[in-house]
Amino acid sequence: MAVEDEAPNETDTPPVHQFLKVLKQGIGSEAVAHRIKENDILVAIDGELFLGDSETLKAAFEDYDPTMPDDVAWLVTFWRDGVFFNQCFHTPLRAEFDFVTPEEALLISEGFGKLEFEPIENYQNYEIFRDLKSNAAMHSMKYDSLASYFPLLWLLNNRLYYPMVAISIVYGVTIVTHIALFVLGYILVGLYVKKAQLNLLRSYHLFEDKFFWFVIGAASETQAREACRKLDPEILFPFDKADVPQRLNRIQRKKARERQADT
Question: Which domain, by its residues, includes 225?
Fold first, then answer.
């Protein structure tokens, strides 16, 4: 006699996991500094799809050691208004979360399958500054040894022209005065630029009337620029191949808005 199959027990059905959406309250300090905001959706950690709740998220960061150097980080992938972007976190991600809707989960799952990741150690954070006209500037948050040994080259590479002129004057005055004084000045300038390089970059962007806009984790500056354009198609970077068509598109959109306002 055939044995009838037992009806499946609904209580044995595994729960449907959803992605986590950031809530307005409880966003941690590093997430705030990275410009994470309400309704951003956590998608992946270190390139692996993250499906779980807040407790599972804490467990994902359980190997955090505050004594480790800053270059030990997690690559966290978010989704915002249909756009994926990465950020490197050096401390565990802190925030309050809710679950996304099934429709959002489906869109994210389909889009994530098209993403490609490089080795995690290749990624670093880039800070993006921009002005009211969407003109942007970007720099890596990773310390550059060039700043210590060749400060002028580092300043030129980052287009910090006014500090470069000031340091050139210091070099000129000291080398005319005495070679030993020049050597001492060169060492002191190298030490200063090494320690202050991020502050120099940020201050110079503010001097150019650009405000801090966002943090992007990418394996190269080119990837960081592409991610910024997806988040804001009107953003403009200097010496960019896409600069001319972007400007034309922005002018066309501006004229279209003006025509709509007139009507």
Answer: 126-262
